[in-house]
Amino acid sequence: MNARMPVFANPRAAARSWYPAGRSRSLRRGRIRAFDLADRRIAVYRDREGVVHAVDARCPHLGADLVLGRVEDEGIRCAFHGWCFGPDGGCRDAPGHPAPPRRRARVYPCQERWGLVWVFNAPAPLFDLPAPDSGRWWSLTLPAQRIGCHPHLVLANGLDVAHYETLHDMTFTEPPRLSVGAHDVAVTMRGRPRSAFWKLISGTARRDIVARFTTIGGSLAWTSVEAPVRFHVLFSGRLDRGGGCVTRTVFLFPRRLSVDPVRAVGLMAMLLHDDRRVLDTMDFRPDFSDADEPLRAFARVVNELGAW
Q: Which pLDDT value is given to residue 230?
């Protein structure tokens, strides 16, 4: 990709970041599945020892789809000419050749967390996946959804402090605070809904919502809610081939029996119930105003990450 081409909201580029490639339980030992990221096809497979690997699906010989191949002790073998590529991407064996050709498949770092397989689209991760600071947590992963706009706009939605008061009918009790890091942009907020119904559902009749929303890299957003209930939410978004966004949402709750999970889902429903309608029909114009500094900061971070 042209290094000068912006990555933010670019329908042809996937920023260097972590992306969920599917549920761990759906990838059994010796199996391969396809993972599409923008215009790139990736083969994700679990070897016979149970370790997950990701490799560019186009065989470096003639471009056959490695997803059609099979998993062996040495790696993944192409169905077309039988070339085998190891976990490091190097060719281990090629029928008809006295020595393995010096061909190398592009490989990607992988992790498994919260029941999902994660792939980083660069030679090495630039940052870690987020996690709660301490304590014991249980996770709830929602089914994937599709939204009609670019994933960067979906992820940046939580940074758009102005829309909380206009779209979600909230009142800030303190001015939101912005912080920007090398790979993340965060907004800390305190406020409550005006609606009596949403106050009841979210448990905010007498207490403020205290939350911190952070975008991480070009594909993740991490919400930490401290009050009225304590929980975290991880959002992820990736480009699909139609230019829209495939999202994954993971809730993280403390490991104790309470009504907090119900209130947490109610609180997030309050914050997000109108967003989908707007985002699905958005035709983005990058004309940021002075009030959009968090969005502008996120665009800068994504462009500096670049694509691979």
A: 86
Q: Which of 268, 155, 142, 253 is nearest to 203 (CA)?
A: 268
Quick check: 278 pLDDT over 70?
yes
Which residue pairs, CB below 8 angstroms and at least 24 apart, start in 187-190? 187/158, 187/159, 187/161, 187/212, 187/213, 187/214, 187/294, 188/212, 189/161, 189/164, 189/213
- Based on its alpha-carbon atoms, the radius of gyration of the chain, rounded to whole angstroms, reads 21
What number of other Cβ atoms are within 10 A of residue 35's Cβ? 20
Please give the model's pTM, rounded to 2 decimal places: 0.91
Phi-psi domain of 44 (left: phi exceeds 0; alpha: psi -120 through 50; beta: other): beta
C-alpha angle 22-129-66 in degrees, rounded to nearest 5: 35
Report the pLDDT averaged over residues 285-291: 90
What totals of helices (H) and strands (E) does the chain contain, helices first? 6, 19
Distances in whole angstroms, Cα of residue 61 to Cα of each of 42, 56, 84, 87, 285: 16, 12, 11, 17, 42
| Helix residue spans in 157-259 (DSSP H) | 162-166, 196-202
Domains of the chain: 18-120 (2.102.10.10), 137-305 (3.90.380.10)
Q: Which residues is 65 bridged to in the sheet?
A: 58
pLDDT digits (tens, 9 = 90+) for 55-93: 999 999 999 999 999 999 999 999 999 999 999 999 999
Q: Is the pLDDT of residue 259 over 60?
A: no
Q: Average pLDDT of the chain?
A: 91
What is the DSSP secondary structure assignment for residue 78, as one 8-state letter?
A: -
